[in-house]
Amino acid sequence: MEVKGKDKVGSSEVYVIEATPAEGSPEKLYFDVHTGLLLRHDVKDENSQGKIASENYMDDYKYVDGVRVAHTIKRVTPMFTTIMKFTGIKTNVPVDDTKFDKPSN
């Protein structure tokens, strides 16, 4: 990871970090200078159509079991924009093992 400098996401001043994996495309992460929260994450996902760039914006941070978690995530690609808004997030909830069973045809 390498600090690339400062920029702005909306009205927030951010540190820009470039993360370069051993394989794959580099990613950029934008952390709020004052809160340290991740406000944006740029990534190139690969699928059957090739590499698709997306900008992912995190917002509406709320505490969940003592940790601040984004409750709104906006994903912007050249083809579409999606917004996910979470009304509740729970951690360490028991999950019935049958949820992982392969569906029958």
Strand content: over 45%
> CATH topology, what is it called?
outer membrane lipoprotein receptor (LolB), chain A
CATH superfamily, called what?
Lipoprotein localisation LolA/LolB/LppX
Structural class: mainly beta
Report on this structure.
By secondary structure, the protein is an all-beta fold. It has a single domain (2-100), classed as outer membrane lipoprotein receptor (LolB), chain A (Clam). Helices cover 0% and strands 59% of the residues. It has strands at 2-9, 12-19, 27-32, 38-47, 50-64, 67-76, 81-85. It has a 7-stranded antiparallel sheet with strand order 1-2-3-4-5-6-7, with no helix packed on it. The termini are far apart.
Features:
seven-stranded antiparallel sheet; 7 strands; outer membrane lipoprotein receptor (LolB), chain A; 105 residues; mainly beta; single chain
Structure described in brief:
The protein has 105 residues and is mostly beta strands. 0% of the residues lie in helices and 59% in strands.
What's the arrangement of secondary structure elements?
Elements: E1 2-9, E2 12-19, E3 27-32, E4 38-47, E5 50-64, E6 67-76, E7 81-85
Antiparallel strand pairs: 1-2, 2-3, 3-4, 4-5, 5-6, 6-7
